[in-house]
């Protein structure tokens, strides 16, 4: 188990591109989010789902918390997570990322230093929903949300980032498929065809 870090799933998105709640879409016989809970439960002693519709996820039997700032997207979810968990840091992922990799998560959680965020920085840009956030980031996040600055990228200049480069990731994994998320029905079909 990874100490000093909680495992958090954000399940607050509207899934408008998918057409229904993608967290509950079936992959390999179970809901997408269920596969993610299984992966995180093996890594973290403290786990949490951030959702404004807890009744939809009661079957998972996980602790849940709601956004304090409504309609502010994933940043509000990160804020709610850091307020709710008892650990000093949280690994935060989306509910539509079924290929989470245990080894990479361990690497992100073990990075030394006093950074506020350990953030994979891929060739196409940062991946803020596969990252480790420190509670020390809460005041800056709170300030942004209070001003209705809801884009996660508005934080990057204000926080201490540990950017995890593509090269570092490729020393652990053969490619970037772990970061694939499910936005459309065809993404789910492609995932099924990969056999993952």
Please provide a brief summary of the model:
The chain is an alpha/beta fold and 196 residues long. It has helices at residues 32-41, 73-84, 102-110, 138-146, 166-172, 185-194, and strands spanning 5-10, 26-27, 30-31, 47-50, 64-65, 89-94, 117-122, 125-126, 130-134, 161-165. It contains 6 helices and 10 strands.
Going by CATH, the architecture would be Alpha-Beta Complex
State mean pLDDT (0 to 100 scale).
91
Report the portion of residues in β strands. Answer: 15-25%
List the helices and strands in order: EEEHEEHEHEEEHEHH
Q: What is the level 1 CATH name?
A: Alpha Beta
SS content category: alpha/beta
C-alpha Rg (nearest Å): 16 Å
Low-confidence stretches: none
Task: Let me know the number of strands.
Answer: 10
CATH topology description: Spore Coat Polysaccharide Biosynthesis Protein SpsA, Chain A
Individual helix count: 6
Termini separation (Å)? 24 Å
The CATH H-level homologous superfamily? Spore Coat Polysaccharide Biosynthesis Protein SpsA, Chain A
Task: Walk me through what this model shows.
The protein is α/β, with parallel strands linked by helices. The protein has a single domain (5-194), classed as Spore Coat Polysaccharide Biosynthesis Protein SpsA, Chain A. The chain has six helices and ten strands. It has helices at 32-41, 73-84, 102-110, 138-146, 166-172, 185-194; strands at 5-10, 26-27, 30-31, 47-50, 64-65, 89-94, 117-122, 125-126, 130-134, 161-165. The strands form two sheets. Strands 1, 4, 5, 6, 7, 8, 9 and 10 form an eight-stranded mixed β-sheet that branches. Strand 7 (117-122) and strand 8 (125-126) form a beta hairpin. Helix 2 (73-84) packs across helix 4. The chain starts with a strand and ends with a helix. The model has no long low-confidence stretch (mean pLDDT 91).
């Amino acid at each position: 188990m990874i100490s000093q870090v909680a495992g958090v799933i954000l399940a607050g998105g509207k899934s408008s591109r998918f057409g229904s709640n993608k967290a509950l879409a079936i992959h390999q016989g179970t809901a997408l989010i269920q596969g993610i809970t299984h992966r995180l439960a093996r890594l973290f002693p403290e786990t949490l789902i951030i959702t404004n519709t807890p009744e939809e996820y009661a079957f998972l039997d996980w602790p849940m918390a709601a956004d304090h700032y409504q309609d502010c997207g994933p940043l509000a979810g990160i804020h709610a997570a850091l307020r709710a968990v008892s650990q000093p840091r949280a690994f935060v992922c989306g509910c539509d990322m079924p290929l989470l990799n245990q080894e990479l998560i361990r690497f992100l959680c073990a990075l030394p230093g006093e950074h506020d965020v350990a953030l994979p920085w891929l060739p196409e840009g940062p991946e803020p929903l596969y990252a480790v956030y420190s509670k020390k980031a809460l005041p800056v996040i709170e300030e942004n949300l209070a001003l209705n600055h809801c884009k996660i990228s508005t934080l990057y200049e204000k926080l201490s980032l540990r950017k995890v480069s593509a090269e570092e990731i490729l020393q652990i994994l053969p490619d970037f498929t772990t970061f694939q998320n499910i936005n459309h029905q065809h993404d789910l079909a492609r995932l099924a065809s990969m056999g993952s």
